Structures are given as structure tokens and as C-alpha cells.
Amino acid sequence: MTVDEQTRQRVFARLREALGEEAAITLMAGIPPFDWSQVATKADVYAVRDLIGGLRGDMGGEISGLRSEIGDLRGEMGQMEARLSTSMATQTRYYMVATVRAVLTTGALAFAAAGLT
């Protein structure tokens, strides 16, 4: 049975008439202003604690797994960086050699053309 605030006030007024102010206040302090089904028991608190503990353990495992995956990704990125660096160095060497060859060829052609005339 749910007791609303009006009912609580009526009960308090009757208790005050029958027992006096102090006794009425003392008795009403022992009656919660809500339905007893809303009161959590120790078993409820322990069940929530156990549930939270289980979730914390699960989350710890998940976080460890994520840390491991992040470590793997860092390793893969390091390998990719090394391959990219090697490829860029190789490409730069090829470009420089091709540029030098083109400059030398152009110079040789210019000297050859100048010697023919």
C-alpha cells in the first residue's frame, strides 16, 4: 500500500492529538515517506556491488585487449614507416640519377651542336 503525503499528514495529526507532539514526531520519523518496496536491502546492495565488480573485471580485460591491439598497431605502423622511408630514399636516388643524366645529355647535345656549326 502506497501512502501519500496527505495520508501521512492526517496520521501525524491524529498521533499528535493522541500521544503529543514529541511522541508523534518520533513515531513518524520511523515511517519512511515512500513505499517499502522502494527500500534497498543489503542483498540488493551486495548484488549491485557484485555486478559492478564483474563489469569492472570485464572492462579491465577489454582494456588490456585494446592496449595489446594498440601495441600491435604501433608495431605495424613502425614497419610501414620503415618501408615508406626506404621507398622514398630509393625514389629520390632514382630521380637524382635521372636528373643528372638529363642534364649531362642536354649539355653533351649542346656542345655537340656548337661543334657542328
Q: Which percent bin holds the helix content?
A: over 70%
Beta-strand portion reads under 5%
Q: Output the radius of gyration.
A: 43 Å
Described by the principal axes of the CA atoms, the overall outline is: rod-shaped
Please provide the count of β strands: 0
Q: How many helices?
A: 3
Provide mean pLDDT, rounded. 90
What is the terminal separation in angstroms?
A: 119 Å
Protein described:
The structure is a single chain. The protein starts with a helix and ends with a helix. It is built from 3 helices and no strands. The protein is an all-alpha fold.
Summarize the structure in short.
The protein is mainly alpha-helical. It has 3 helices and no strands.
Walk me through the topology.
Blueprint: H1 5-19, H2 21-29, H3 42-116
Helix pairs in contact: 1-2
Which short descriptors sum up this protein?
117 residues; 3 helices; rod-shaped
